[in-house]
């Protein structure tokens, strides 16, 4: 189950644009079928509206919530939309054909904000989450997918580890990750 972890509240600040843009090309190498769009001037200063909207969508059902969560990520990475704006979240909810009366009523209440902050607090205090994404089992065991990380100094990538896999070649690594989790 996905839980919110707003970086601006529990992780030291909102997503760092410069670092994310430096890492995007690396993500594109690891997932060649993924689509990325350069960001314009409208960079989100908060992720809370996105987390709150996703929480509201999950109240309409697990599958609806997962689809909407993916829709938010696609809007940010592939479409360059500002997921920190409530009006963008409402547009995405309409585009996803959510029950807008229910979604809007819930989105305009305090419930999603309180729930998102509680999830983030739980992640930080109980499970030691420091950043996103953090994938873990229900007992708190963290799972690490093999990937390549850049060495960034003074805002520039100076080196990159060898890619452990690429695109469909990562299926085996992902399968191994989940098989080890199932043995627990």
Question: What do you see in this structure?
Answer:
The chain has a two-stranded antiparallel sheet. Strands 3-4 form a two-stranded antiparallel sheet. The mean pLDDT is 84. Helix 3 (48-58) packs antiparallel against helix 4 (62-77), helix 3 (48-58) packs parallel to helix 5 (86-95) and helix 3 crosses helix 7. 50% of the residues lie in helices and 7% in strands. The protein has helices spanning 7-10, 17-30, 48-58, 62-77, 86-95, 100-107, 111-127, 171-182, and strands at residues 135-136, 142-143, 150-153, 156-160. It has a domain at 7-130: Cyclin A, domain 1 (Orthogonal Bundle), CATH 1.10.472.60. The chain has 8 helices and 4 strands, in the order αααααααββββα. It has 184 residues and is mostly helical. The longest helix is centred in the middle third of the chain and has 17 residues, at 111-127.
Short overview:
This protein has 8 helices and 4 strands, in the order H-H-H-H-H-H-H-E-E-E-E-H.
């Amino acid at each position: 189950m996905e839980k919110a972890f707003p970086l601006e509240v529990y992780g030291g600040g909102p997503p760092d644009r410069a670092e994310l843009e430096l890492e995007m090309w690396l993500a594109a190498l690891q997932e060649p079928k993924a689509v990325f769009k350069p960001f314009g001037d409208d960079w989100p200063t908060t992720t809370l509206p996105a987390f709150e909207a996703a929480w509201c969508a999950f109240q309409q059902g697990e599958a609806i919530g997962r689809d909407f969560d993916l829709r938010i990520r696609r809007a940010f990475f592939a479409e360059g939309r500002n997921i920190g704006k409530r009006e963008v979240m409402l547009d995405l909810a309409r585009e996803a054909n959510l029950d807008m009366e229910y979604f809007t009523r819930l989105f305009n209440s305090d419930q999603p904000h309180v729930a998102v902050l509680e999830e983030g607090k739980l992640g930080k205090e109980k499970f030691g989450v420091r950043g996103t994404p953090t994938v873990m089992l229900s007992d708190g065991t963290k799972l690490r997918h093999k990937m390549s990380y850049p060495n960034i100094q003074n805002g520039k990538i100076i080196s990159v580890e060898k890619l452990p896999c690429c695109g469909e070649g990562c299926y085996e690594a992902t399968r191994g990750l989940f098989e080890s989790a199932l043995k627990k």
